[in-house]
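User: Hey, my collaborator sent me this sequence without any context and asked if I could get a structure. I don't really work with proteins. Can you help?
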Amino acid sequence: QVQLVESGGGLVQAGGSLRLSCAASRGTFGMYSMTWFRQAPGKEREFVARISRSGDSDYYSDSVKGRFTISRDNAKMTVYLQMNSLKPEDTAVYYCARPRAFLVGIRTEEKDYDYWGQGTRVTVSA
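Assistant: No problem. I've predicted the 3D structure and written it out in structure-token form, which is a compact way to encode the shape of the chain:
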């Protein structure tokens, strides 16, 4: 059983930065792409960013493109989300997730993921 543990959330002013981390407890971390989702209060969970297994390819939602950067360190079994120029609308609980085995390509829907972290809360004040 793989466990994903996020950290790094907190309260920040608009325009500020945060770096989220997601550490995997075990498993073949480097064999899976990894993805960040977020869920704002009263809204459905949405896709944020995805990184390939090797880290050489990434993909972002339009709402964070140019401000957020996803990266990974396979030796540390950790994926990161660097968030810059934060806006109040970025306020949400952020989750990392691992896709179901044998799925390929960019997956932006929750149903394609079977391992999730507990989430880390990010609050951006105006």
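In plain terms: The mean pLDDT is 96. You can pass these tokens on to your collaborator as they are.
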